[in-house]
Amino acid sequence: MPAWLEVLVRVLLVIVAFLTLPLLVGQAEHKVMAHMQGRLGPMYAGAFHGWAQLIADGVKFVQKEDMTPRDADGPVFRLAPIVALLPYLLVLLVIPLGPSGLVAQPLDIGLFYVLAIIGVGVVAVLMAAWASANKYALLGGLRAAAQLLGYELPLVLAGASVAMAAGTLSLSGIVTAWRPWWLVWQLPALVIFFVAGLAEIRRPPFDMPIADSELVFGYLTEYTGLRFAFFLLAEYVGIVVVSALTAVLFLGGWKGPFDEQLGWLWTLLKTGAVAFVVLWLRVAYPRLREDQLQRLCWLVLVPLALAQLLLTATVKILI
Q1: Could you count the other beta carbons within 10 Å of the beta carbon of residue 3?
Q2: How many of the other CB atoms lie within 10 Å of CB of 214?
Q3: DSSP state of 291
Q4: How many Cβ atoms from other residues are within 10 Å of residue 28's Cβ?
Q5: Do the beta carbons of residue 46 and residue 35 sit within 8 Å?
Q6: φ/ψ (deg, to 5) at 102
Q7: Using an 8 Å Cβ cutoff, are 106 and 98 in contact?
Q8: How many helices (DSSP H) and strands (DSSP E) are in the chain?
Q9: Quick one: pLDDT at residue 1?
């Protein structure tokens, strides 16, 4: 197969995953929350366990009127949902699914690229908040900016710890260098990365930028129809990306029994397990107040991340 055709096929497969995996996560969220909270939920759409409920929701969003507030900055307001989605698609291109180059676009600086691209998400939130010409949206955008800029630091430090341990910035190289005993000495980095990743995608209990009981719906208040659906899709793609990165960086990615043949399956199973924890936290924990959220970042996660980085450097020097 020509090189250009192979790259094209890989990119198309990533786009298919980009469009389908978030729907599976969304369906899982409906069912997981329903079982945890003792609710039946929509069980009859599509007959089998309500499998077509998300399709029905999609049709509903398409039918809703697409409105732009009169005082809004129209071009910026309409562009924000696309900017929210695009970074996650670019990140999925470099996440390895299995050994032997099973990745859309391998990069030697994959981790650096991923952490840089994820940071673009704050731009989309600020665009939506400022362009909406709504005070609730603006307050939500300011909260999001403070939250995302703060939690970027522990996210990067935790990623730097595992990169230092592996001696490479390549995501595939990190998986190759990973050993089971890393689950012990890199465990603080895993927890820090996962928690900071939750804050980056604004998932409960880190959803202060939306806080419907205080800000109507935060920076999403003025969005309707498909543009609102794009922001929801970006949230679910964010769950997939954070879960996949956690699996690849800290849980061994494709490593497992018969990993040469079933490596892709191990990656997907680990990603699914982490995504389940993301959904469980939404049900299990209440939303953090703004002051609690910032204290957790600056007084807990950042010092722990620096201590973990020091531990990793010490271990690398000694061995």
Answers
A1: 7
A2: 14
A3: H
A4: 17
A5: no
A6: -80, 75
A7: no
A8: 14, 0
A9: 64
Among 39-48, 67-76, 227-236, the range of highest mean pLDDT: 227-236
Find all residues with CB under 8 Å of 101, minimum gap 6, and list them: 172
Tokens 């722990």 belong to residue: 304
Query: What's the start-to-end Cα distance of the chain, in Å?
Result: 43
Quote the tokens at residue 242. Answer: 């954070």
Measure Cα distances from 108 to 173, 241, 288 in Å: 8, 19, 37
CA distances from 318 to 179, 184, 315 (A): 17, 17, 5
- From 193, 278, 293, select the one nearest 236 (Cα to Cα): 278
How many whole angstroms separate alpha carbon 100 and alpha carbon 104?
12
CA pair distance 131, 78, nearest whole angstrom: 9
The whole-number pLDDT of residue 121 equals 81
* The predicted structure's pLDDT at residue 240: 93
Please report the pLDDT score of residue 142 as a whole number. Answer: 85
Q: What distances in angstroms separate CA 36 from CA 30, 130, 194, 207, 225, one per listed residue? A: 10, 37, 22, 20, 29
Q: Are 81 and 232 in contact (CB under 8 A)?
A: no
Asked whether the beta carbons of 139 and 127 are under 8 A apart, the reply is no
Contact call for residues 115 and 159 (beta carbons, < 8 A): yes
The predicted pLDDT at position 310 comes to 93
Whether residue 234 contacts residue 85, with contact meaning beta carbons closer than 8 Å, is answered with yes
Give the model confidence (pLDDT) of 99-112 as tens digits: 877 777 788 888 99
Structure tokens at 91: 């990140």
Cβ–Cβ < 8 Å for 202, 147: yes
Other beta carbons within 10 Å of 298: 14
Distance CA 2, CA 191 (A): 42
Cα–Cα distances in Å, from 78 out to 70, 202, 300? 13, 21, 38
Residue 196 tokens read as 């900071």
Q: For residue 178, give the amino acid letter.
A: W
